[in-house]
Write the C-alpha cells for this entry.
Amino acid sequence: MLATKPLAARTALLFNKADQFELTLCQRMNRMGYYTAIRLFFKGISRLGDGVFWYSLALLMPVFYGVDALYALGHITVTALICVAIYSQLKSRLVRQRPFISFDDITAHTAPLDLYSFPSGHTMNAVNFAILFSAFFPPLLWLVVPFAILVAFSRVILGMHYPTDVLVGAVLGMLISLGSLALYPAGVF
C-alpha cells in the first residue's frame, strides 16, 4: 500500500506537467467544437467509435467473405477484449482527469463514459480494429484507417482527451494488433 502513494504522486506530477504542455493544443482543437457542424460531425464519429461502426462492419463480413470471416472476427474479438482490459486497468490506476474537468476553458462537447482520460480507449480500439480489419480484409483499408484517424481527432476536439492520451492509445492499439498478428498470423482461431 505504501508503494503506491509515491507512484501516484509522481504520476500526478507527470500528468500535471503534460497537461500544461498540451493545454494550448487542446484549447485550439476543442474550440473547433463550437462550430455546430464540426461538433455534430465529431460527436457522430465518436459515437460510432464506441463500437457501433466496428460491430456493424463485423456483422457484414460473413455476408461478403463467408464462414472464413468468422475466424478473423474471432481474432479481432480477442484483441478487442485485451484492449478493453488494458485501458480499463491503466485508467483506473493512472487516474488522469479529462481535460474538461481539469480546465474551465475546455468544453465537453459530449458526455464522457468515465472520469479518466489516459489512455484513450476509443483510439486504442480504433487503431486495433483498423489494423486487424485491414490485415484480414484488405479492401477495407481505405475505410477503416481514415475512420480510426477521425476517432482519434474526435476525442481531443470533444474535450475528452489530451493529445498524449490519444497518441498512447494509438500506440497501444497498434502494439496489441501487430503483436497478435505476429503470434497468430493466420488468426487466433
